[in-house]
Amino acid sequence: MRTDQTTAEARPSAFEVRQAREENPKMRERDLALSLGISEAELVGSFVGFGARRIAPRFDDLFPGLKEVGEVMALTRNESAVHEKIGPFEKFVPGKRAALMLGEKIDLRMFPSNWVHGFAVEKPDGKDVRRSLQFFDAHGDAVQKIHARPATDLEAWKRLVDRLVLEDQTPGRLPEVSVAESFSRKRPIEGVEDALRSRWEAMTDPHQFHGMLKDLDIDRVSAFELAGESWAWPLDAGAVPALLRIAASEGIPIMCFVANRGCIQIHSGEIATVMDKGPWINVMDPTFHLHLRTDHIHEVWAVRKPADVGHVTSIEAYNSAGEQIIQFFGVRGEGNAERSDWRGLAENLPRLDRAVHLGAAE
User: Fold this and answer.
1) Full-prediction pTM beyond 0.85?
2) Residues β-bridged to residue 144
3) Cα distances (angstroms) measured from residue 6 to each of 9, 21, 209, 286
4) What is the mean pLDDT of residues 99-123?
5) Integer angstrom CA distances of residue 124 from 21, 132, 172, 230
6) Of 48, 178, 200, 354, which residue is 20 to 30 A from 120 by alpha carbon distance?
């Protein structure tokens, strides 16, 4: 995520950004923005009047409207993972702090305050036009992109864009973005270990974990380090590719979470096609694509959390700053015990010696 910002004097104009796009037609937007020293929102905003229109990220209009358009591709990413789901938007559950999109294919947890800038984009692609709705946070980082597909109802798409479009479509005015603070770990205060273990053991739902960390003012990795072997243990960095390959070969249904400041996107179900390409490991299935930078994975943890029935096990990967990249669970219905095949997979992934790991982290 972007942590610096070009000065006003050095920031390229909208014309210069469009010119750079023309000179680098195959470069990904995120990479081009980085090369220009601007955010991706500023890059997209440079095309207002040239294939892009400013739209309002009003959830109460956006998600009921998306239900009408049928099949789309929803994309959520962070610095190290890209999560793509193909299908319709179904049940929208509004909320001021957090909203939900529930559906068989597209399953999202959304944080409305971080949906700040929006654009409807049309890009020529040979004889076709690629259409997307793109939303960014206050720092200009993408929180969600929704791409039209061949099966998308384009008349419903047009009606939705017309409802969201803003009056100000002045070309050349780039969105105002702020500098994002670098992620930093919340180191535990002395004496918190006993409280952490007591609270952890008393949980009855994995969703209580976040509140526990907030109350104790501790980050996730520090909590894992203090929890003890019965609740969390470090894994080899190759555990995540191994997990994907075993789940695919043995038909074990998984839940895969990728998050950024504004959105968490979830896949639930089996995966089939896993392939490597350079530093990326990819899942390329008909309605689910995952692209994960394995070279960004600094540490991996297996974590147990008490649930309504027994406990559930997650596999969580983190970058060198201690920021979560991706998280996996086994598919489990409420009121059911964790699947034995998933638990067996998770508990048999290659472990690291805890003492060696913690010594290396200090």
Assistant:
1) yes
2) 135
3) 8, 18, 38, 40
4) 97
5) 13, 12, 20, 55
6) 178
Q: For residue 230, how many other CB atoms are within 10 A of its CB?
A: 11
CB 237 within 8 A of CB 349: no
Q: What angle do CA 306, 311, 312 make, to 5 degrees?
A: 110
The CA distance from 289 to 75, in Å, is 9
* Stretch (H or E) spanning 63: helix 59-69
Q: What are phi and psi of 220, to 5 degrees?
A: -65, -50
Per DSSP, helices labelled H in 191-321 are: 192-202, 208-216, 220-227, 239-250
128-136 and 71-77: which strand pairing?
A: unpaired
**Per-residue pLDDT tens for 239-286?**
999 999 999 999 999 999 999 999 999 999 999 999 999 999 999 999
CATH class of 192-361: alpha beta
Residue corresponding to tokens 């080899």: 236
Beta bridge partners of 269: 254
Q: In sequence order, which residues have a C-beta less than 8 Å from that of residue 347 and are 6 or more positions away?
A: 302, 313
Residues of the chain with CATH 3.40.1570.10: 14-79+115-164, 192-361
Best CA proximity match to 76, nearest among 135, 5, 154, 153:
135
43-69 pLDDT per residue, tens: 999 999 999 999 999 999 999 999 999
CATH class given for the domain over 14-79+115-164: alpha beta
